[in-house]
């Protein structure tokens, strides 16, 4: 049995920008966003959210992947069209370590807005969540 394992690490109000090189079409974008790293996934958060993320806790729900279908490939969202029951529930207290253990590079920046503007102009896959809570410039 295969399990659904997409990790969402941040608390409910924390803005984040996540991006990956799975479908990068332009080599220049690959170099610009991933040239100094061996990772294929990155998450960026704002400095002002660091302490809340560091001290926060979330729950990871593990489901049977057969119950889900791909809804949005770019962001990696999967949905179930019927009620599902988790196979396991895990409490995650050390969110920073959980991100790093997934092989994801974590970037911490004073503002997500400059990164957002560059990512939107690129060919990288991305997901920007709760950007209304990001620092406005």
Given helix and strand content, the structural type is alpha+beta
Weakly predicted, low-confidence segments: 1-9
Approximate shape: globular
Let me know the number of strands.
9
Largest sheet: 4 strands, mixed
Rg, nearest Å:
16 Å
Helix content: 10-25%
Q: In percent, how much strand structure appears in the residues? A: 25-35%
Question: Which sequence of SSEs, written as H and E, runs from N to C?
Answer: EEHEHEEEEHEHE
Query: Taking all residues together, what is the mean pLDDT?
Result: 78
Distance between the termini: 47 Å
The count of helical stretches stands at 4
User: Which strand order spans the largest sheet, edge to edge or round the barrel?
Assistant: 8-3-2-9
Give an account of the 3D structure.
Strand 5 and strand 6 form a beta hairpin. The protein is built from 4 helices and 9 strands, in the order E-E-H-E-H-E-E-E-E-H-E-H-E. It has 137 residues and is of the alpha+beta class. The strands form 3 sheets. It has a 4-stranded mixed sheet with strand order 8-3-2-9, sandwiched between helices. A 3-stranded antiparallel sheet has the order 1-4-7, with no helix packed on it. The chain has a two-stranded antiparallel ribbon with strand order 5-6. The radius of gyration is 16 Å and the shape is globular.
């Amino acid at each position: 049995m295969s399990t659904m394992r997409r990790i969402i690490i941040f608390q409910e109000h924390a803005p984040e920008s996540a991006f990956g090189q799975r479908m990068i079409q332009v080599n220049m974008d690959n170099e610009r966003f991933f040239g100094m790293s061996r990772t294929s996934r990155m998450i960026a958060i704002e400095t002002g959210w660091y302490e809340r993320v560091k001290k926060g806790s979330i729950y990871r729900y593990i489901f049977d992947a057969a119950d889900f279908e791909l809804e949005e490939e770019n962001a990696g969202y999967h949905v179930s069209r019927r009620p599902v029951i988790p196979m396991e529930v895990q409490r995650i207290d050390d969110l920073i370590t959980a991100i790093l253990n997934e092989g994801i590079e974590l970037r911490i920046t004073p503002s997500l807005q400059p990164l957002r503007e560059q990512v939107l102009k690129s060919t990288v896959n991305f997901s920007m969540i709760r950007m209304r809570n990001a620092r406005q410039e």
